[in-house]
Amino acid sequence: MDAAPSPPVTLVIFGATGDLTRRLLVPAIINLTQSGLTGDDLRILGIGIEPGDDAMLVGRLDDFLKTLDDGGAHAASDGWKRLRQRISYTSGDFTKDEIYLDIKARLANSNAAFYLAVPPQFFGTIVEKLSEHGLMSESETCFRRIAIEKPFGTDLASAKALNARILAKVAESQVYRLDHFLGKETVQNILTTRFANMMIEALWNNNYIDHVQITAAETVDVGSRGKFYDATGALRDMVPNHLFQLLAMIAMEAPNGFGAEAIRSEKSKALSALRIYTPEEAAEHGVRGAYAGGQLNGNEITAFRESKDVSPDSHTETFVAVKLYVDTWRWAGVPFYLRTGKAMTARDTEIVVTFRQVPFAQFRETDIKRSLPPNRLVIQVQPDEGLSVELSIKSPGLSVDTVPVSLDFRYADKFDIGKMTGYESLLYDLFIGDQTLFQRADGIEAGWAAVQPFLDMWGASSEQPETYLPGSMGPDGADQLIRKDGRQWHALGVILHNQKTSKE
Length: 504
Ligand code: BG6
Fold this sequence. Notes:
The chain has two domains: 9-178, 3-Layer(aba) Sandwich (Rossmann fold); 184-503, Dihydrodipicolinate Reductase, domain 2. Helix content is 34%, strand content 20%. It is built from 16 helices and 17 strands. It has helices at residues 19-34, 54-66, 73-76, 78-83, 97-107, 123-132, 156-167, 185-195, 198-201, 226-251, 260-272, 279-285, 411-414, 424-432, 441-459, 476-483, and strands at residues 9-14, 42-48, 87-91, 112-116, 144-148, 175-177, 209-217, 286-291, 294-296, 299-301, 319-325, 335-341, 348-355, 376-382, 386-394, 402-410, 466-468. The strands form three sheets. The protein has a nine-stranded mixed sheet with strand order 16-15-14-13-7-12-11-8-17, sandwiched between helices. The chain binds 6-O-phosphono-beta-D-glucopyranose (BG6). Residues 150, 218, 237, 349 line the site of 6-O-phosphono-beta-D-glucopyranose (BG6).
């Protein structure tokens, strides 16, 4: 089914002169315009603190698009030529009434989606002001929606307070809480992989699955984000949001349809089944690290605690690994190991589902030593997007011996998803009113509830995170966390490809 063009709408971007707008939102809208998914009735109204006019914003976007690593494709595209005529800008203080009166006069009774690409301290105020000025009131012929970027809260209490503040003014059906991981094609594919394939879903439980690993490893260091990062850390930055979205899709029950509420309800149920640890259990099931100085891919990496805007005695982590349980019948006893970090050996976001080993008895008399490797399903989210199933087969010859092989699917072999920013589907869904790829209040709070014991435990600790070398797989403690269960982390950046082997 080809998607229909979105209805007429004004995208009102708070934070229009910022990095997110120029780097992700505008290129995504150009892509949507090019593909006909948004029409000439889409307008952008940029709002910023900086004084300026329409020509200022358009001129800056023109300049920025020329610097994109796309050979000038976006800057020269017909989509941009058409879109740039429909961009306006107005400036003002987000906490004062004037700007909202201005927006009201410009919008009249038209559809609008307000996009909060601003620091989180403005989220509550902007929603309240929009509502007080009648800008969130919908009618039969006009919708009003609000899109909120992460971080949504910094712990359970603040996430609950923010939800309460927002939902006191607008309906949940008007709120689109973003997690950009849900815009990734490979993430959206998890549900199809599970629910469109009997051979996968039939084995998707604790009878057949030994454990699940979810990794988001990055090679980048904190760079110029020291101030934000020192106040945030790897756990808050990645786990209750991005990694839990992946976990929810792996752990959820089958929805009774592919509608937004059916899917979001199942995801929230899975997240609210995450075991809430005591402080002692959190200490046993979590490890954190901070990278030391060193070399990575030929570049000099400054130790996190010596980085600009980071306190030299910072207790903030740049790596975290946790072992969690989803306490449902399906997942009873199956550990979910999650890890994420900066300055690691490879950029690799992946989900590895390891199946139980087959009974070995019947192979005792063969050349196979001790055990067979378990089957694994590897969902490669990025880079090199794809899906691999690792199996054991008999290696050719007279004796019974096995060799692991991999059935591989790479997106790049079949599709061209590389040109997308990942915001296309999120923006299109915001315009057509589909909340499937956005987080509901209960899901967000369930995620924070599961990480809160780790925040409390580390917040009360006088110990600094263990250091690890740039270009490594994280601190030694992370290895011990999984090794004490007789398991090991999936090697980063390594995909089992079938190379030809010659038999001696
Ligand atoms: C952001 C985090 O939400 O996600 C960053 O704040 C992180 O620290 C980024 O680098 C990772 O996203 P992606 O899409 O590059 O994997």
